[in-house]
Write a structure and sequence with these properties.
Ribulose 1,5 Bisphosphate Carboxylase/Oxygenase; two-stranded antiparallel ribbon; Ribosomal_uL1-like; ribonucleoprotein
Length: 129
């Protein structure tokens, strides 16, 4: 599969669902929560948004956020821009009632490689939120 995002209209989800084994394994199955199941009239906007890039992150059971920043082929400045966007999105998503230290640590890793711990203060200063 040579794409990063799959989109569908609600009426096509029955047909797209048959591709579940292939798309689901790669995390590409269209989903209304992630904004990839859209009305036909909203499709041009959704495609434009996907091309511009959008920060999507999820917490796992241990409250760790996993989010892709880029690919090995990306230039350093693009990776830094992506890191800044992720930090801003995470800080913006902080619930107003959250108390204590919201982010305790941050690290970068390749898909199967060891993590490199980031210095938290400069990393969090990337956010204007």
């Amino acid at each position: 599969v040579e794409f990063d995002t799959a989109m569908a209209t609600p009426d096509m989800m029955g047909k797209v669902g048959k591709l579940g084994k292939m798309l689901g394994r790669r995390g590409l199955m269209p989903n209304p929560k992630s904004g990839t199941v859209v009305a036909a009239t909203d499709l041009p906007r959704a495609i434009s948004d996907a091309r511009k890039g959008r920060v999507e992150f999820k917490l796992d059971r241990t409250a760790i956020i996993h989010v892709p920043l880029g690919k090995i082929s990306f230039e350093d400045d693009k990776l830094m821009g992506n890191l800044t966007a992720v930090v801003e999105a995470v800080m913006k998503a902080k619930p107003s009632g959250a108390k204590g230290q919201y982010v305790r640590s941050a690290s970068l890793t390749t898909t199967m490689g060891p993590g490199i711990r980031l210095d938290l203060k400069p990393t969090l200063s990337l956010s204007s939120a």
